[in-house]
Amino acid sequence: MPADVMIETVALKKHFPVRKGILQREAKAVRALDGISLTIRRGEVLGLVGESGSGKSTLGKTLMMQEPPTSGQIVFGDTEISRFSERLLKPFRRRMQMIFQDPFSSLNPRMSVGDSLTMPLRFQAPDMSASARLDKARQVIETVGLSGDILERFPHEFSGGQRQRIGIARALITDPEFIVADEAVSALDVSVQAQVLNLLTEIRHRWQLTMLFVTHDLAVVGHIADRVAVMYLGKIVEVAPTRELFTRPRHPYTEALMSAVPTPERRAHQRIMLEGDIPSPISPPSGCAFRTRCPYAKPACADSAPPLDVRGTGHYAACHRPELELASPIAT
Amino acid sequence: MTTMTAAGDAAHTRHHWWQHRTLSRFLRHRLAATGLAIILMLTLACLLGPHLLPYDELTVDLRARFSPPLTQDHYLGTDPLGRDIAARLLMAGRISLLVGFSVMLISTVFGTLIGVVAGYFRGWVGSVLMRIVDAFLAFPSIFLVLVLSAFVEPSPFMITVIIALTCWMEIARIVEAEILSLRERDFTIAARLSGASARWIMFRELVPNAMGPIIVAATLTIANAILLEAYISFLGYGIQPPLPSWGNMLNSAQQYLADAPWLAIVPGITITLAVSSFNFIGDGLRDALDSRSNLP
Ligand SMILES: Nc1ncnc2c1ncn2[C@@H]1O[C@H](COP(=O)(O)OP(=O)(O)OP(=O)(O)O)[C@@H](O)[C@H]1O
Ligand code: SF4
Ligand SMILES: [Mg+2]
């Protein structure tokens, strides 16, 4: 595999068994990830967008090996880690870290900032002395724009934005190469959102981080991501460089998502709202999973699942109708 | 750039979690504050009282048998052997309260351990542990205590162990439920994703966040333990005379209910006072430590 690939998935599936009754065994499953093949290059930020329930968080958590996938592969650097036990994973945990959405849940309320920050080092750098750990904590807390003397204080003394910075510092303290940021700014006030987003952009360049940036907010993803993957019902339906995706979407779902972003020109009532509810991931529609809500669906769309095909340089879309001219909110 | 001072937009001044809000909310709970005052006074009286009273709890004075309360310096009267009831009550209190606190300690530690292991590991480990809890709960604790105490030497130590054996299950259940929800919180996931050990996650991340419910349950356990001790001693299976306990004082009072009612009334009121005080303290703590009302 090329040396510049940070993490790659091959036909990755994560199914959550749905048990009905006590005796009946796993008859059905929520197909949260239904065959994801994706590559994230070293140093890039891949944005991941999609409606609620499309499986974005599950992809992030599965890449982190929070739980083993149902099938498929995860290749981190040059090691396939998808079948690793927790013991084998331990050395990789230093290299990949996570930033969480809710700054009120991501820090232990009963633990000082210093203890929260140095926690990863206790397990990833056991030879480090306690004072060396604290020095390191002081150093990262300053990189995220907070003062080094807050280590003895507790999370409730800080605002949401400050807590999020502490959470970012905790993710950085092991010098990771890859970070999953799951809705890292969604819970923050708009003004604070911009600050934290700027911080992430700055850090990402300074530390040459690779990131999976999960969000449902296309404006946010446009700000930070180099490429964007669009997810629907456990599948990637389109991947493209950010600017390309915004100017020339090639999947009807992407078009629909972008029409939901308010722009100065387009007032709320003019949006093409997404028709109907997202189908259940327990029994997704046959063929193209989006066909129940797609304005361009034709009978053939029910027959087979469209593969993710090339539509341009680095641009892929999974749709049976490549000829469609789709609208873009910022078409040039 | 993005530099922001630590004080920045932080809404709170610096204080520990248990200061201010929790304490003031507890003290605003009238019954709880009264209960706490009663327990403090009772404990103090049991510790110091026996040294201040003119009689000790074992001195027999047959000329002074059945003295009603306030006879000379027998403030609470005497028993059928002429022993000073005030002295006996306070010495009994030492034993009853000690049994209560010890049971609380043992069953809280044990119940918490079972609960945190069951809640953290879930799966078959959790199922087996919680089925054991259910099995213990299936017997009424009085029945369990009586059966167990029929087989052992009723020393205060054994009585404590036996009562503790019937008191840990509630705590185990409370802790397990709490841990099951805490283990899904992001800070726990962050620890797991950093390769933290099970011990660290259980005892540094999870248990400290379950302390509120644990403390409440522990307080209620003291009340329960004092009541159980009194009950089995009253039935004659508990603390054995001449060692006094509130329960066996009641037991020996039975035959003289008509002639010397104070023999029963004095320990009876004391038990009621102690048990209800601990229950009120528990209620007050439940309100004061409620994590929902603790959010900023
Ligand atoms: N532990 C789990 N057990 C069972 N089902 C789950 C579990 N985690 C996620 N799911 C299901 O998998 C699907 C995808 O969930 P996921 O959280 O990944 O979506 P998402 O895209 O992150 O949504 P959101 O924008 O709301 O965060 C949903 O249908 C969800 O109910
Ligand atoms: S395959 Fe058909 S249903 Fe699916 S997105 Fe394309 S046009 Fe719509
Ligand atoms: Mg999510």
Structure in words:
In chain A, a hairpin with a 2-residue loop joins strand 11 (309-312) and strand 12. Chain A starts with a strand and ends in a 15-residue tail after the last strand. With 332 residues, chain A is an alpha/beta fold. Chain A has helices at 56-63, 86-93, 113-124, 130-143, 160-172, 190-206, 218-224, 242-247, 252-259; strands at 5-18, 28-41, 45-49, 71-76, 79-80, 96-99, 178-182, 210-214, 227-232, 235-241, 309-312, 315-317. The longest helix of chain A has 17 residues, at 190-206. Chain A has a domain at 5-84 and 228-317: P-loop containing nucleotide triphosphate hydrolases (Rossmann fold), CATH 3.40.50. In chain A, the strands form 2 sheets. Chain A has an 8-stranded mixed beta sheet with strand order 6-7-8-3-9-10-12-11, sandwiched between helices. Chain B has a domain at 91-289: Orthogonal Bundle (MetI-like fold), CATH 1.10.3720.10. Helix content of chain B is 68%, strand content 0%. Chain B is built from 13 helices and no strands. Chain B has helices at 21-28, 30-52, 85-121, 123-138, 141-151, 156-165, 168-182, 186-193, 198-206, 211-234, 246-253, 262-289, 291-294. The two termini of chain B are 29 Å apart. The chains are: A alpha/beta (332), B mainly alpha (296). Residues 16, 30, 32, 50, 52-58, 216, 281 of chain A line the site of adenosine-5'-triphosphate.
